[in-house]
Amino acid sequence: MKKKLLLFCIISSLSLSLWAQSEIETDLANIETTEQANDYIRTKPQSTQKIVVFNEEKHKTVLAKELFKMNKGGVKIAHNDYEKTYYKVIDNYKIPYYRVRYIYLNGNEMTTEAIETTKEQIVIKHKQGVPFSFLAKQYSMDTSAKRGGDTGWFKSGANRFEFENDVTSNTDDLNSIFTIEYPENQSYYVILKCFEPKTISEIKVLKIIEPIES
């Protein structure tokens, strides 16, 4: 009798596990857009799921490379002894990224005359051959000075920088210097256009983690 009961419990446990897996796979099959993925996440607050954005320039893991090879709608399942993780590619696209070097001058700590003089000195020194990265370390008044004023790659709409819109719409030639001013914020910038815009692939992935019952 005990053996039969044990066998029944094992079979029941396996059946429940298979049912749960089948339910998730069914749900995934019905999710085709970011909006549907967000709706799914809202209806499953007790589970672990989220949308993850993979950037081909930043993410170089084996998993990321496998996901980038998949078409939209593709599903990958990974598991260990404790959990099973589902990845579904719900969107793939290419987006322009931008990168410049800049020097920030704080109008709260400098007079307008001092700012204008400093900008002129920066431009003159750079034309004389002084690397812009060195000038940024010397003059810039924010933490980017340590990086030589390098923004790193950023996309339009990321809202990482005050000057984002002006930089992404700028049509000056490569290696040109231009200035941007926001007097209302007491912010003044000298910017070197040292990189051409770069198109980078991104994918949106719905990630669902399902614990494995012990």
Largest sheet: 5 strands, antiparallel
Judged by helices, strands and strand pairing, the structural class is alpha+beta
Q: Count every beta strand, where a strand is a DSSP E run of 2 or more residues.
A: 8
* Low-confidence sequence ranges: 7-20
Helix and strand element order:
HHEHEEEHHEHEEE
What proportion strand?
25-35%
Instruction: Tally the structural domains.
Output: 2
What is the count of helical runs? 6
Shape: elongated
Helix content: 25-40%
Mean pLDDT: 89
Calculate the terminal CA-CA distance, rounded to whole Å. Answer: 23 Å
Give me the Rg, rounded: 26 Å
Q: What's the short version?
A:
The protein is an alpha+beta fold and 214 residues long.
Describe the structure.
The chain has 214 residues and is α+β, with helices and mostly antiparallel strands. It has two domains: 2-92 and 200-211, no CATH class; 100-194, Chitinase A, domain 3. It is 35% helix and 29% strand. It is built from six helices and eight strands. Strands 1, 2, 3, 5 and 8 form a five-stranded antiparallel sheet that branches. The chain is elongated and about 70 Å long.
